[in-house]
């Protein structure tokens, strides 16, 4: 598996280098016009492929590790459940905003406003939990010395 990943990385790197040399060789005028002749498309596809492969491999190995090590599965499920509970609380607490916001595609709906409010409330809750955890950890470390 490791050998295959090295080969894929090498191939993507070579294609990226060739695309970069093409972009540099095209000159400033081609870059300013946006590369209508397909100059930037191979470089963009390399980025998409690299991102996709990275996400797939991360998900694969995380899930593989979770199911092979069942002791960590319980802690992971507790963490995911706590996160979902924070999101649910944030959604229930945020009632949305009564003002109308103009968006590019029209006016924001009540549902969109509620979701934005829920995201902000969830951020504030998670920020408070992180700050309290760091303070508690620091105080515990000072007391234990």
Molecular structure report:
It is extended and about 60 Å long. Helix 4 crosses helix 5. It is 81% helix and 3% strand. The two termini are 46 Å apart. It is mainly alpha-helical and 145 residues long. The longest helix is centred in the C-terminal third of the chain and has 35 residues. It contains five helices and two strands. The protein has a two-stranded antiparallel sheet with strand order 1-2.
Present the secondary structure layout:
Layout (H helix, E strand, L loop, with lengths): L1 H25 L1 H5 L8 H28 L1 H24 L8 E2 L2 E2 L2 H35 L1
Antiparallel strand pairs: 1-2
Number of helical stretches of at least 4 residues: 5
Task: Report the span from N to C terminus.
Answer: 46 Å
Overall pLDDT level: 84
Biggest sheet details: 2 strands, antiparallel
Q: Tell me the fraction of residues in β-strands, as a range.
A: under 5%
- Could you give the count of β-strands? 2
Shape: extended
Order of helices and strands: HHHHEEH
- Based on secondary structure, the structural category is mainly alpha
Low-pLDDT windows of residues: none
Give the spatial strand order of the biggest sheet.
Answer: 1-2
The helix fraction, in percent, is over 70%
Q: Evaluate the radius of gyration.
A: 24 Å
Structure in a nutshell:
The chain is an all-alpha fold and 145 residues long.
List keywords for this structure.
single chain; 3% strand; 145 residues; mainly alpha; two-stranded antiparallel ribbon; 5 helices
